[in-house]
Structures are given as structure tokens and as C-alpha cells.
Design goal:
By secondary structure, the chain is of the alpha+beta class. Helices cover 36% and strands 12% of the residues. α5 crosses α13, α10 packs antiparallel against α14 and α13 packs antiparallel against α14. It is globular, with a radius of gyration of 23 Å. Keywords: ATP-binding, Disulfide bond, Glycoprotein, Golgi apparatus, Kinase, Manganese, Metal-binding, Nucleotide-binding, Transferase. Pfam families: Fam20C. It is found in: Golgi apparatus. It comes from Pomatostomus ruficeps (Chestnut-crowned babbler).
Length: 409
């Protein structure tokens, strides 16, 4: 493979330094980045997102590499802390023309396979179709906090091996006994062919998630989730044993002042609907301050078990008994027969090249879980009253000029 790669590069004259490429102002990646606001990652019905999804689906790759966190593992790999080899979570950064960049997560599990009951959430598979479905659900809920994500059938030979300049990545490609082209992640504890992903013989399904602007352009904070889970086999966090835990959270800034707690509840509802128990941190743009939206990143551990509803994910809602009015109205609308969530999701996912993205039982599980969310809200309203539980996030604060005008009269 390395000889073939060398010949390919020489053929394209890639050994000589390439001329710098101009940045086109109309590039879909740039337009997506410019569309980020304090309301979300993109405006409703954004044409830039439509173009971005199309470009990620169709443009040829010009380079491929490991992600930064996987590179860090190469040099700093504490194998004693790994319950299950991270090789099963192999992901790559693919680059396109116009400085486009996307995270590629390959198919590890067939759609109809459920996560085994005995799996802990922190050893679960990462599913490419969960990333795609999470983007569509997030958009339907009008959160717009998941980066645009699309499915794609990748030719691992032509679109990864032959364009990568990373010799480590080149070295992990091999041909399986079934004559399929395979590759795996490289780290002392996972440099094994049994953790590989394989094409058929070259084509491999995967999800492509658009990168956000670089941290130098748009700094982000990574903050521990107050409802973080214990990442051990027998430990429990305080929220799991103390039903009054939210009272403690409410006393801590910024949960005491801003809408951060309401955003945490939004995130918990989203995670409950997709069945994601692995939200240990959340990220947000520093530019938008404490009231900024939370990014819903890394959703590949969602949609693992359609036959089980993990009620504990809803702890922020059930313990704090608060929810945004806009979120509640959207959820109630999606529970109506003519706007049923499973139907809207099914129709939305048909737009993806890898449709059907979810199996029917997963779609129907969304309707069931939505009823459980509305039931939890109803219980809170019954206990504390609607005025206390439902936060009016649609009222616009009056401007200083309005205050002055009233004072002058």
C-alpha cells in the first residue's frame, strides 16, 4: 500500500509544494461559520447548510488524517484507564476543497443491531447513523446545536489511503481474508486487526460532521455536566442518590443566574430522546457569554437500544422541574398526530444518502420517549404550577432606551 501511495503522489506531482489556494467567500464551510449566532449554529432554513451537506456528500477528499485526540493517544496512552480499546471509535479528519473539513466516523454496527444489555454506556459502540439522526432530530426540535452531519459512502482506498500524508495511517491499511480493504487506529493497546473497519471491498459507510471554526477564531469552553455519570462499574454520583440535588446546582453560578440550567434541560431532553447516556461535558462559545447555547457534540452513542428508555437521562428535568416555553411548545406540537415526531424524522432522514438511517423501532421509540418527557413536565406542573415550571424564554428584554422613555413621561 505504501508503494502504491508513493506512486499516486508522484503521478499527481504532490511531492512539490502546492501553490496557496485562495479562499472563496462563497465557500459553504465559510458561509456556515459566518452564520453562527447566539441563537444557534445556523439560521432556520439556512441555504448555506443545504450547500454544506451537499458538498460533504459529493466533493472529493484532498487529505485524510487522524483526529487530534487520537494523535494525543499515540504519545500519551494510559492503557490502565481504558475499559475498552478506543480503536472501535476510530475517526478521521477528511479535508475538501475550499478549506472544508469534516469528522468521518465509519460504520461499526449495523442499523438493526441493538447495543447488548450488559454493555455499560462508557464501553458502547459509536454509531455513524446516530450522528446523522442526531443532527436531523436537533434541527426538528429547533435547537440547531448539532453541527451539520451527512452520511456518505467512502472509497477507503481512493478517498483515505491515497490522499493521506500520515505514514502511520498508511501503515494500518491491509487487505482482509475476504479481500476487503481495512484499516484501524494506531495506539499501543489497539493496534490490532480485530478492531479494524473494512470496506466492501473498498466502499464504507460513514458520517461526516462539519467542523466548527478553529478555537483561535471562535474560542469555546468545555464544561463538566453537573449531571455527569460515574465512569466506573460501581460508583454513583450525588445526583443519582440525592433527589434534591438540583437545589445545590441552582446555588452555583452560572446556573443560579443565566439560562444555563434551561439549556441543560434542553440537552437532557435531546439525550433522552436519542438514548445517549454519555454527556459528560458540554461546550459553548465564549463569545456569547453565560447565556450562550450549549453545543450538542459527539452523539454517536445515541440510538443504541430502541427497546429501553433510560429515564435517568431526564434527571435535570425531573429534579429541577423547569423547561423553556419554546421547547415545551415544540414538544407538544410533535406529539400531535399530524406532526408526529417519528413521521417528521422519517421524512427528514429520507434526504440523507444512507437512508434509511434509522430502523422503524428506533423511530417509534422517539414517539414513546416524547410522551415520557411530556409526562415528566406534566408531573412537575401538577406539583409546582405552570408559572413556576415553564420559563418564558420568548419575552424580549426591554432596551435601555425604552426604560429611559418611560422614565421621561
Amino acid at each position: 500500500f505504501s508503494r502504491r501511495h508513493k506512486l499516486y503522489r508522484e503521478e499527481l506531482n504532490l511531492t512539490s509544494p502546492a501553490a496557496p489556494l485562495p479562499l472563496r467567500p462563497d465557500a459553504s464551510w465559510l458561509q456556515f461559520h459566518l452564520g453562527i449566532s447566539r441563537d444557534g449554529l445556523y439560521p432556520r432554513g439556512s441555504p448555506a447548510v443545504t450547500r454544506l451537506l451537499r458538498d460533504m456528500r459529493e466533493l472529493p477528499t484532498i487529505s485524510a488524517d487522524y483526529s487530534q485526540d487520537e494523535k494525543a493517544l499515540l504519545g500519551a496512552c494510559d492503557c490502565s484507564q481504558i475499559v475498552k480499546p478506543s480503536g472501535v471509535h476510530l475517526k478521521l479528519v477528511l479535508r475538501f476543497q475550499d478549506f472544508g473539513k469534516a469528522m468521518f466516523k465509519p460504520m461499526r454496527q449495523k442499523r438493526e443491531e441493538e447495543t447488548p444489555e450488559d454493555f455499560f454506556y462508557f464501553v458502547d459502540f459509536q454509531r455513524h447513523n446516530a450522528e446523522i439522526a442526531a443532527f436531523h432530530l436537533d434541527r426538528i426540535l429547533d435547537f440547531r446545536r448539532v453541527p451539520p452531519t451527512v452520511g456518505r459512502l467512502i472509497n477507503v482506498t481512493k478517498e483515505i489511503l491515497e490522499v493521506t500524508k500520515n505514514e502511520v495511517l498508511q501503515s494500518v491499511f491491509f487487505v482482509s481474508p475476504a479481500s476487503n480493504v481495512c484499516f484501524f487506529a494506531k495506539c499501543p493497546y489497539m493496534c490490532k486487526t480485530e478492531y479494524a473497519v473494512c470496506g466492501n471491498p473498498h466502499l464504507l459507510e460513514g458520517s461526516l460532521s462539519a467542523f466548527l471554526p478553529s478555537l483561535s477564531l471562535a474560542p469555546r469552553l468545555s464544561i463538566p455536566n453537573p449531571w455527569i455519570r460515574s465512569y466506573s462499574f460501581d460508583g454513583k454520583e450525588e445526583w443519582e442518590v440525592n433527589p434534591l440535588y438540583c437545589n445545590t446546582v441552582r446555588e452555583i453560578y452560572p446556573y443560579s443566574k443565566s439560562n444555563r440550567l434551561l439549556n441543560i434541560v434542553d440537552m437532557a431532553i435531546f439525550d433522552f430522546l436519542i438514548g445517549n447516556m454519555d454527556r459528560h461535558h458540554y461546550e459553548m462559545f465564549t463569545k456569547f457569554g453565560d447565556d450562550g447555547f450549549l453545543l450538542h457534540l459527539d452523539n454517536a452513542r445515541g440510538f443504541g437500544r430502541h427497546s429501553h428508555d433510560e429515564i435517568s437521562i431526564l434527571a435535570p428535568l425531573s429534579q429541577c422541574c423547569t423547561i423553556k416555553r419554546t421547547t415545551l411548545l415544540r414538544l407538544r406540537l410533535l406529539a400531535e398526530p399530524e406532526y408526529r415526531l417519528s413521521d417528521v424524522m422519517r421524512e427528514s432522514l429520507l434526504q440523507d444518502p444512507l437512508a434509511p438511517v434509522l430502523t422503524e423501532p428506533h423511530l417509534l421509540a422517539l414517539d414513546r420517549r416524547l410522551q415520557l418527557v411530556l409526562g415528566a413536565v406534566g408531573k412537575c406542573i401538577e406539583t409546582f404550577g405552570e408559572a413556576t415550571v415553564v420559563a418564558n424564554d420568548t419575552a424580549q428584554p426591554r432596551s435601555p432606551a425604552e426604560h429611559r422613555a418611560k422614565g421621561d413621561t
